[in-house]
User: Fold this.
Amino acid sequence: MKKRTDKVTILDFARWKEKGEKIVMITAYDVLFARIFDEVGVDSILVGDSLGQVVLGLPNTLGVTMEDMVRHTGAAARGTKRAFLIADMPFLSYQPGPEEAIRNAGRLIQAGAEGVKLEGGRNVENTIRAIVRCDIPVMGHVGLTPQSVHRMGGYRVQGKEEAQRQQLRDDARAVEEAGAFAVVLEGMPADLAGEITEELTVPTIGIGAGPRCDGQVLVMHDLLGLFEEFRPKFVKRFGELKRPVRDAIRAYADEVRRGKFPGREHSF
Assistant:
């Protein structure tokens, strides 16, 4: 497949949806990996609040702060030239109301993001409208929403019952009508995600939502085989990087202990 080389803008998402071209998104939290992913040609980089688990060692995303997101968004932005950079709005950065949401979304844009993502459906449509009115692109997120983990009773697939299926359809439409340029569909049956994708005019980005979404997103630590605390069913490991990293560190430790490193070639 031909590599996309032009700078990605918000207009490309709609164009790709119309043409039926799949959208590639991946998370990144620092300049090094953002630069690598950008050079490879992914379409969008998400600075996800998943950094709570894979970077900060927290049990969930609820402990991630605006300060965390601003710092990591800035780092990723400094490594991104082509991809469209989106930053998650963390827990309690938008739930208190539109005014607070606008202020916090603006902080992420000032840090280098080109759009923000927030979780929820009809309950956040007024907040989405308010942010969009300030010319800040918003990506929605419905289905399994990690910031609602306690209300949902854990990380459970959503939309198994008909009433819940209809609720998710309504949520996705509300997010679109509020002005979101795209919607993440997470943790729902593939057929439901496919139906929502066909109903919406904006693209859907799936994570644990089957192949019929307009694009896909995965957490970088999951697809690279770096995170082993838990492994959701929807994750495919495209690499096993933990093993070579571990081997390299063992080799380093061994050479230091044997006095082999540093050698003359590494000394001044």
Q: What stands out?
A: The chain has two domains: 10-237, 242-268. The two ends are 48 Å apart (CA to CA). The mean pLDDT is 96. Residues 10-237 form a domain with the TIM Barrel fold (CATH 3.20.20.60).
